[in-house]
Amino acid sequence: MTYDRLVCANCAAPVNEGRCPVCRANRERLRRQDQGPFGGMSPALLIALLVVLVCAVALLAQQVA
After folding, report:
1. Of 41, 4, 43, 45, which Cα lies nearest the Cα of 26?
2. What is the H or E stretch that residue 8 is in?
3. Measured in whole angstroms, how far is the alpha carbon of residue 35 from the centre of its chain?
């Protein structure tokens, strides 16, 4: 989930504006989560990589059998 659509329960403002300490803390937490190894990738790209991986494993299994 992206923080640009979240609304703070503390101040009722969008979290991405960072109006209160709660907003700023959650905004930073979400930014740190996005910096993971796959954080910058879109879900479509992750699905495509998964499909390629499954196809590669299927080809290897066919070669062995």
Report:
1. 4
2. none
3. 9
CA separation for the pair 13, 23 (Å, rounded): 8
pLDDT digits (tens, 9 = 90+) for 7-56: 888 888 888 888 898 888 888 887 777 676 776 778 899 899 999 999 99
Question: How far apart are the two ends of the chain, measured CA to CA in Å?
Answer: 42
| Phi, psi of 39, rounded to the nearest 5 degrees | -65, -35
The answer to whether 15 and 3 have CB atoms below 8 angstroms apart is: yes
For 36, phi then psi, to 5°, come to -65, 180
**Residue 38 amino acid letter:** F
Structure tokens that stand for 20 in this block: 């209160």
Which residues are registered as beta bridge partners of 18? Answer: none
